[in-house]
Amino acid sequence: MADSKGTVKTAESRARRIRATGRRRKAPTRRRRALTFTLSALVSCALLGGAGLGFVYFKLNGNLKGVDINAALGKDRPQNVDNGSMDILVLGSDSRAGKNSEYGTDEGGARSDTAMVLHVYKGHKKASVVSIPRDTLIKRPDCTKDGKDVPGAQRVMFNTAYEVGGPACAVKTVESLSGIRMDHFVEVDFTGFKKLIDALGGVDITTSKPIDDDSSHLHLPAGKHTLSGEQSLGLVRTRHGVPGGDGSDLGRIQLQQTFIKALMEQVEHVGVLTNPSKLYDIADTATKAVTTDTDLNSVGELTGLAKSLGGIGSEHIDMVTLPVTYDKLDPARVLPLPRQTQQVWDALHRDRPIPKSAIKDSAGDKGGTSSYVK
Questions:
Q1: Of the candidates 205, 237, 212, the residue with the CA atom closest to the CA atom of residue 374
Q2: Which candidate, 78, 5, 60, places its Cα nearest to that of 283?
């Protein structure tokens, strides 16, 4: 596995429109404390591997898909700082191909509908997550896809990097923006996300107001809910059905961050240790759901990663949105706030907490869905 670099610490800026229902049970073991819906499910791989089930190991190994980011990017990357931290780019793909076609027409390529930089601090006891709005206008670097050059561009949406250049271009774009080398890359698509949530038994949330969004197929009254995979996908995709939201990607990010916290708390109570069948279902679904860089493209490497992140609880994860402001030429798009954005990347580069001053004037961590919260 690539050398270690950091993870995530949760948010004062988290959206309060939904919250975990907070069922209390006996304290979870450290192995059952996992990071995000992708990394938390990988704990089950570690447990299965520890059971000595060789045939299961090879079955799960065959599920995995990998992208050789190092070969694609070569030496045109930031320096790999070996300070005990770790940086992982986590993407949610919005491809409408195959089983994802029910969510719309595929217009020629997938885009990174969700993008988060997960920074795990030295010691792997806490982490920070920086969500990058898909609508952020950026300078995209030159990339290569399938052996063909893809020229860079000015003032284009962040999620076009994945569309025109695939995972390697998404990684290169994030590294260009942040000056931080990504140790790993993890991607989950619509269908894999739904199946993983269903394998986990759903996620408990409480909504303070109704959510009605025909675009994301989500209709929830106010109150307590156990969301299925389909409903969970609707929640993390919704932009237009939330009272008080501005219909932008910023409100959706607030919901995504709150959902991840609820999911993490749910995973702590899954009870996979006493249910081998459920353990296998989660591991099988998780390994089918994700695409990783080739350094993580084996159950052994994922097991090592899951164990190294296993001590990070949701209370030790800080979630923020990249500091942005609305673009004056196109209010449907946002622009990074240069000074505050640099504060964020500098903090992670030095393996330090993100200062509150970095998000003080950002449109990303105020208003929107968090304005209508219990």
A1: 205
A2: 60
